[in-house]
Amino acid sequence: MSNKKNSRKSSTNSSTMRLRPVWVVVLCILAVLLVILLFRACSKTDDDTSSNASISVIDMNAGVQTIEETRAVEQTSVKIDIPSCKVVVGEKIYVTATVTPANTDRSLQWKSSDDKVFRVSQDGIVEITGTGTAALTATVGNVSDAIVIEGIEKNDSKSQMNLPSYNEVSSSDNTDADSNADNDGQPQQETQAAAARPKTTQAAMPSVKVVSRGLRSYQLADVLGGLGFHSTGDNVFVYGEGDDYSGEIIVQPDVSIIYIKKNSADYESAVQSVLQNLLPDEYTQAWSNYTSAATDRTFTLEGRTVRIVTAGNGGHSQIVVYN
Q1: Does residue 278 contact residue 271 with C-beta atoms inside 8 Å?
Q2: In what order do the strands lie in the sheet with 125-128?
């Protein structure tokens, strides 16, 4: 009997020993599955947290509040500031474009579809070279705007496309302001064109109250001859020739653009005289702002918008004075 009992105990112990490795394997598998599930749960929590981009704000009275932050990306757009128009052959006009958002870091590129009608510089200077029509395109990145410019023989030449003259479209803001003087005695407002800028642009200048007693841009041509400038066209006045070329002034109905290439004493004196005619009370401040400018800047003197454009790659610097 004793031998039988011992035999049974031995058999039971042997079975128990055979089962133990199986349970160990099962427990290991369960542990691995538990670790995997925990890891996946943590990963999902991290993803949800990063995608929400929330900001926690602590309120001493209300506890912790969560504010969801939403960032909207503004699409880039470009708009040429004048409509399609006709221009007399030989004239130069200055065109601008408004780019939004204003902090767009891509440069503005100008292009003519036909150089036989007009050429355009990257500063926005359009020179009419012949009769006919061509497209002027302004491009920033992958967005563009375009207008038609038609070259005509003389001011009263009929447009093939019934386009208005450049003088009409560029001075329309001033005409509207003059014809719509307030009946209540309040000073009238004038809308300014967008600021001058080589290869980059900003939003159009805000309306300003014109209080200056200086000459308007369209009156400046009458005095430039006496200051040493000579006319090369209807609206272009050059100072010096050949190696003595120092700069030039382009006069438009609503803006005077002073280009400075060489800082000679004579030309600096002539430019200051021009500024004195435009800004008789604050021309010295305009000149001081120009000589001290390290980057492009815009300011207001005597109620008139003034834009300083610094020279790039050895080119012209500019002083732009709006009516």
Answers
A1: no
A2: 92-94, 125-128, 118-120
Domain ranges of the chain: 76-170, 188-323
pLDDT at 56 over 60: no
Q: List, for residues 266-322, the tens digit of each pLDDT value.
A: 999 999 999 999 999 999 999 999 988 888 888 888 888 888 888 766 677 889 898
Residue 221 CB: number of other CB atoms within 10 A?
18
The CATH architecture that domain 76-170 belongs to is Sandwich (2.60)
Say if residues 134 and 148 touch (Cβ distance below 8 Å).
yes
Residues 262, 121: contact at Cβ < 8 Å?
no
Helix axes 265-278, 283-292, angle to 10 degrees: 130
- The whole-angstrom separation of Cα 121 and Cα 112 is 9
**Using an 8 Å Cβ cutoff, are 51 and 92 in contact?**
no
* CA–CA distances in Å: residue 191 to residues 145, 176, 301: 22, 9, 16
Cα distances from 65 to residues 55, 132, 260, in angstroms, run 8, 66, 58
